[in-house]
Amino acid sequence: MKRRAFLTRSLSFATAASGLAIAGPAGWSMASTTLGHRVLDLELFDAKRQRAVPLRLYLPLQATSAQSVPLIVFSHGLGGSRMGYSYLGRYWANAGMASLHTQHVGSDNHVWRGNPLFLLQRLQTAALESEALARALDVRFALDHILGSEQAQLFDAGKIAVAGHSYGANTAMLIAGARVNAGPAYVGELGDKRIRAAILISAPPLPGQGPAQETLGSVSVPTLHITSLEDTINLPGYRSTVEDRIVIFDAMAKSPRTLAVYNAGGHSIFTDRTTRSGPETSARIKGATQELCTIFLRQSLQFGHTQVNAERLGDHSAMESKPAALPDAPEGPHGILQWAYRHQGLLERFITPKT
């Protein structure tokens, strides 16, 4: 019986790779398939916490038991979902790295639904400490499931990174080792030793946690910090600017860290949307961010070069222009510096361990 179930799931994966819209393995369902990768959705439920954890996986076609791939776990911002940040998930998958996008049901796109008179209340609830902790546990639960499933052999457990935007960057910081005053029930449970690197896009301060050095000084994995001069979060009763991102960067003194500050683009330019900056600026910054993240991940996870299959995403006009090709030089700080040279017209500030 077990052998039959395994064969069924294996065949489902193989057929999905050919582009047929059928159910994937162990509850996965095919969302789409395209050149270089396929997209799979899974509806998980954490019975211990009585909380749903929907997932979307961007899986490189070359991922097999004989050729496992790195895994990046991505956490969305306030009001987002697993469907978001597809421009990163697709690019990383085409570059040979799986991207697992978690959805946090207590702070996802449902906050925008319902009676507009209660929107502020929904936003405040989504920003509570209990939800911030639940998001981190969502990521741990998703990782435990993926690496404990029959498909675990597709992923290199020694090459796992976490990434996030805005509230999701807070989640990534917790998973990467930030120390928080969360009560005895959570002491030692948030940081995940499987994480080898972290990407923090538009990271706001962790609320109610005191000096940043005390909270973030324990983070020792390589970190990439991305922001822009106009990167401002404006919510009722809350405001966070690019200066906060710099404070977070400076506080992670133990981390081999890189900082990129763009000279244009607001907080939402790092989402899939085309923002008020316009389609050209949006496409340039998204393209540069795709490249920088990929170079950083290859360097931090010690992952060899894989040809990137640039693609045109018809549902994202801001991504119509293809990003520049990655450097042919060996990956590492030299590749990072080449990136900075190519995109110097977009950069206000750039710091990497070798500069």
Structure description:
By secondary structure, the chain is an alpha/beta fold. It is built from 9 helices and 12 strands. It has helices spanning 2-17, 86-94, 119-126, 129-148, 167-176, 212-216, 242-251, 279-301, 333-342, and strands at residues 29-34, 37-46, 51-60, 69-75, 98-102, 155-165, 195-201, 223-230, 233-235, 238-240, 257-266, 347-351. The strands form 2 sheets. Strands 1-2-3-5-4-6-7-8-11-12 form a 10-stranded mixed β-sheet, sandwiched between helices. Strand 2 (37-46) and strand 3 (51-60) form a beta hairpin.
Estimate the helix proportion, in percent: 25-40%
Largest sheet, spatial ordering of strands: 1-2-3-5-4-6-7-8-11-12
User: Remind me, CATH topology?
Assistant: Rossmann fold
Query: What's the order of the H and E elements?
Result: HEEEEHEHHEHEHEEEHEHHE
Largest beta-sheet details: 10 strands, mixed
Coarse shape: globular
The proportion of residues in beta strands is: 15-25%
Query: What structural class should be given to the helix and strand makeup?
Result: alpha/beta
Global mean pLDDT: 82
CATH arch. level architecture = 3-Layer(aba) Sandwich
Number of helices: 9
Radius of gyration: 19 Å
- What gap, in angstroms, lies between the N and C termini? 58 Å
List keywords for this structure.
355 residues; alpha/beta; Rossmann fold; 10-stranded mixed sheet; two-stranded antiparallel ribbon; 9 helices; 31% helix; globular
